[in-house]
Amino acid sequence: MQSSRSSGGPLRMAVLLLGAVAFLFPFLYMFGESLQKANTGELGSVLPRPGSSGTQNYEAVNGAVSLGTSLINSGVFTIGVLLCTLVLGVLAGYALARLHFRGRGTLFATLLLVQTVPFQLLMLPLYVLVVRDYGLGDSYLGMILPFAVNSTAVFLFRQFFLQLPAELFEAARIDGAGEFRVLWRVALPLARPALLTGTLLTFIGPWNEFLWPFLVTKDADMQPLAVSLAGFMSNLRGTVDNPTGAVMAGACVLAVPAVVLFLLFQRHFTQTDIDSAIKG
Amino acid sequence: MSLPLISRAPGSGRRTRRLPLGALFASPYALFLLVVFAVPLGYTVWMSFHRFYFTAPGAEVDAPWVGLSNYRDVFTDPVVQRSFFNIAVFLVINVPLTVLLSLVLASALNSKLPLRSFFRAAYYLPYITASVALVAVWSYLFGTDGLVNHALGGLAPDPSWLVNSSLAMPVVAVFVTWKNLGFFVMLYLAALQSVPGELYESAAVDGAGRVRTFLTVTVPGVRPATTLVTVYAIITGSNLFSEPYLLTGGGGPDHASASPVLVLYQKGIEQAHPDFAAALGVVLVLFVVALSLVARRFTEKKEG
């Protein structure tokens, strides 16, 4: 729909710019402070100035929490979830859309139910099971398990496979292709947009997640960046010269991968695909 | 309008074949749901009716049946009550702010504009960024010696925002509003597309001004999205964790910004009362599922 109220151009622009400032200012603050030698608490300190800027805050936070190890842990956690979602989630999405089997309706109903129950509500029994009963505390497997297959992505894959014309699948089957071949040769090459969107929305879950890895990792060498940065904020910030700068440097390192991915692929990111705002 | 909670009719199966392969393809996911959803859900219900202790690995301790006693403890606990009150505070701030700001920004975005994709990206940025990173920024902005207090000078609140029992929860609510606003701007943008253009034309014919058109056409036209904002706000308010844990130092001061999930963590894991936390978890699951059903009813009405 084109707006029928096209007047008020300057006002519209002013509102939008004001909004952009409100959304972007904290990011500017985060980046600006991360380069400051000392925190003055003044507005001007957000802008990098020659003489008072440098990378020493990154070195300080790296000395306190070992950014490299934390980034590797975040990476393994995120890539593990992505792999499981892309392999097992695509198989499930394809089966839910294109194949008949007993329990398909139940499985789909469960998928919808799971999306409405936030993970946090099951954290206690999951913690007891994963950490105490299965002994998976301080392990990648324990970290990945509750997130392994992103149900929103499964839902997205199913919707995508449903939209593909049925004739396509019939033709491949008539040509004698097995079901696995149909999925691999016909459905997957066409599903690239859905796979990309699925990857993006799955990525931000484990990369940004704090609560679960915080519960399962007590060993600092196993903590992903969100957890080690939170630990640094609560316990260790007194150990560096410019705590504000060091925390902001860590925050930048945590924020940048998701922000870059988003900016690269933002036209694929639409509100229909993103997990609902239920996830705090 | 597409919304995340909408379920579409299951796919027509007339052209698919009856193959056990489907079960094979779906079984890893089904197993996953069983392990991380069904079993924990059953376990938490079971735990909530028993006296349950954390034990050393290998030690066998009885978990006697205690009926509803955990639930009675949950409902009479002042901290739990406070956390539910905090959801109300969260709602009173988050819902009107979210509705107002996202409606204004979505209306402004709803036309051909220079920089349109820049604005969309800018609004979305906080939504995709880790809470921990953004909480870190806000904790400095609203700290005692932070930028906000510097800007306010003599008007700065004392005690400062995050350690003030009447301001801590409002700051959390404003933070969450800010973080999630981009999502709701896009939701309202989609909702605005579905308001029939004829309504604007007839309003114009009737000589309605801009404000009147906005109030009588736009606002009723996006009502389903507004309902969703309210439902999401209640669910988000129940599930806050990083924000009260990190921004206000564990839901402080004195539980003034505690959320039910934070209480669940503190009672269940920090203070080692898993049975109490299990009962609280069951109450919250029922609460959230009921709300989601309400939300789905509203969105389906919109579709139908």
From TrEMBL, chain A:
Database matches in Gene3D superfamilies: MetI-like (1.10.3720.10)
Subcellular location(s) per record: Cell membrane
Looking up InterPro entries in the UniProt record yields: MetI-like, MetI-like_sf
**Membrane-topology descriptor:** Multi-pass membrane protein
TM region(s), chain numbering: 12-31, 76-96, 108-128, 140-161, 182-204, 245-265
- Domain of life (superkingdom): Bacteria
Name listed for the protein in its UniProt record: Sugar ABC transporter permease
Tell me which PANTHER family the record gives.
ABC TRANSPORTER PERMEASE PROTEIN MG189-RELATED-RELATED (PTHR43744), SN-GLYCEROL-3-PHOSPHATE TRANSPORT SYSTEM PERMEASE PROTEIN UGPE (PTHR43744:SF8)
Q: ABC transmembrane type-1 domain location, by residue?
A: 71-265
State the UniProt keywords alphabetically.
Cell membrane, Membrane, Transmembrane, Transmembrane helix, Transport
The record's Pfam families line, in alphabetical order, gives:
BPD_transp_1
- Tell me what organism the protein belongs to: Streptomyces daqingensis
SUPFAM superfamilies linked to this entry: MetI-like
Q: Which CDD domains match?
A: TM_PBP2 (cd06261)
The UniProt entry's sequence similarity note says: Belongs to the binding-protein-dependent transport system permease family.
TrEMBL record, chain B:
The topology of this chain with respect to the membrane is: Multi-pass membrane protein
Q: Which domain of life is it from?
A: Bacteria
User: TM segments?
Assistant: 21-43, 84-109, 121-141, 167-192, 213-235, 276-295
Q: Where in the cell is it found?
A: Cell membrane
Q: Does the keyword Transferase apply?
A: no
User: What InterPro entries has UniProt attached to this entry?
Assistant: ABC_transporter_permease, MetI-like, MetI-like_sf
Span of domain ABC transmembrane type-1? 84-295
Q: Which UniProt keywords apply?
A: Cell membrane, Membrane, Transmembrane, Transmembrane helix, Transport
Its protein name is ABC transporter permease
**UniProt similarity note:** Belongs to the binding-protein-dependent transport system permease family.
Q: In its keyword annotation, does this UniProt entry include rRNA processing? A: no
